[in-house]
Design a protein that fits this description.
It is a single chain. By secondary structure, the protein is an alpha+beta fold. The chain has a single domain, classed as Gcn5-related N-acetyltransferase (GNAT) (Aminopeptidase), CATH 3.40.630.30. The chain has 4 helices and 7 strands. The chain has a 7-stranded mixed sheet. Strand 4, helix 3 and strand 5 form a beta-alpha-beta unit. The longest helix is centred in the N-terminal third of the chain and has 15 residues. It is globular and about 40 Å long. The two termini are 28 Å apart.
Length: 155
């Protein structure tokens, strides 16, 4: 498995992964390639957006890390990182998320972030378990989501 920065040519494959996940959640959030390109690959607040690529060239997942600006959509304190992880449903629990996070964690430290937020839907048990396994701890409880936070120790 290769983990590398996402590029605009990845938007279609990333969209397929995201759309499949959103469908499983019965979510009406956008997942089209244009949204993926604007919201993940080319977002102005992006710290890193990485993809996991299988030996056959197929994308297996992606992870996005952005810096929280004042009045962001997630109501995360300004200056924190905001992470999102999406792995093909048929590829869960195979280490892809951990591989992606290794690269994202390096990027977060290089950017000088001290905290990273993951806001996860209450019904997303696998997502909550994943972030707990990566060291995130609950810092807030929202009506429909749980906010988990990872505090980074300066190196």
């Amino acid at each position: 498995m290769i983990v590398r920065p996402a590029v605009s040519a990845d938007a279609m494959a990333m969209s397929h992964i995201l759309s499949e996940i959103l469908h499983s959640w019965q979510s009406d959030r956008p997942g089209d390639p244009g949204h993926v390109l604007a919201h993940y690959v080319e977002h102005p607040d992006s710290v890193a957006c990485t993809v996991a690529v299988a030996p056959d060239g197929g994308l297996k997942g992606f992870q996005s890390l952005k810096i929280a600006r004042p009045a962001n959509d997630y109501d995360v304190p300004a200056g924190w990182g905001i992470i999102g992880t999406y792995v093909k449903l048929c590829s869960g629990r195979t280490g892809i998320g951990k591989l992606l996070f290794t690269r994202t964690l390096d990027a977060a430290k290089q950017a000088g972030l001290t905290k990273i937020d993951a806001t996860i839907g209450k019904s997303n048990l696998s997502g909550r378990g994943y972030y707990s396994a990566m060291g995130f701890r609950t810092w807030r409880d929202l009506p429909t989501a749980t906010g988990k936070c990872l505090t980074l120790v300066p190196s």
